[in-house]
Write a structure and sequence with these properties.
This protein is of the alpha/beta class. The chain is about 35% helix and about 25% strand. α3 (about 95-100) runs parallel beside α6.
């Protein structure tokens, strides 16, 4: 579904991604692991059109993706839930969800909003509430729900557990699995490596802008380097 080959991204003179290559197959949950500054968020921003790579190739469903503006990438079937949620704080829950469907003109928007409310019943209870007054967990649900309103085939998730209590982290990750079972492929960036590897099928480890390791989730979870660096084991 997604093929990334030899991707190079710069911030001015800083070489942030140094030849990153990886793939995501249809129906998979694939995770990108790495410490802060490794290039995980940069990778997602490049895929969603928010950053322009200097070189490399990205293909989605066998079609080139680089050079396409972000709104057109959404239309092609990729949505991005950014780090920090980035919801519209002054709009209501319903208005935020409607913004997620801004590229659509079909008649299924109301039905898809009800589907989001089925995935996140808490949002239905808060549908008229101003988004900025929601709890952190509710805001994360809203950010994911907004992305689902575009009917993506590939969902880019950046740090969905950030700042959440452990019980909410489990809930969010259970929901990610549910979304995946409903047919959405997921590329997951997550600092909580143990949780990410518990739901992903495969993963890649980024270190200073390069892919350092790759393998099945089980292989990475059993790798001594991964266990020491990301799973907190001596």
């Amino acid at each position: 579904m997604l093929e990334v080959r030899d991707l190079h991204v710069y911030y001015g003179e800083i070489h942030a991604l140094k030849g990153v290559s990886f793939s995501v197959g249809a129906g998979e949950i694939v995770t990108l692991l790495g410490n802060n500054g490794a290039g995980k968020t940069t990778t997602l921003r490049a895929l969603s059109g928010l950053l322009a790579p200097r070189s490399g190739e990205v293909r989605f469903e066998e079609r080139p993706l680089l050079g396409i503006p972000p709104h057109s990438i959404v239309v092609k079937g990729i949505t991005h839930v950014p780090e920090g949620r980035r919801i519209f704080n002054r709009l209501s829950v319903v208005e935020n969800l409607a913004m997620g469907a801004y590229t659509r003109s079909d008649k299924g928007i109301a039905e898809d909003m009800e589907h989001v409310f089925g995935v996140f019943p808490r949002l239905k209870e808060r549908r008229a509430q101003v988004a900025g007054t929601l709890s952190g967990g509710e805001q994360q649900m809203l950010a994911i729900g907004r992305a689902l309103m575009a009917k993506p085939r590939l969902l880019l998730l950046d740090e969905p557990s950030m700042g959440l209590a452990p019980v909410l982290v489990e809930q969010i990750f259970e929901t990610v699995q549910t979304i995946n079972r409903q047919g959405v492929t997921i590329l997951l960036v997550e600092q909580n490596a143990a949780m990410a590897l518990s739901i992903a099928g495969r993963g890649y480890v980024l270190e200073t802008g390069r892919i350092a390791l790759e393998g099945s989730a089980a292989e990475l979870a059993g790798n001594p380097e991964v266990r020491r660096a990301y799973l907190g084991e001596a």
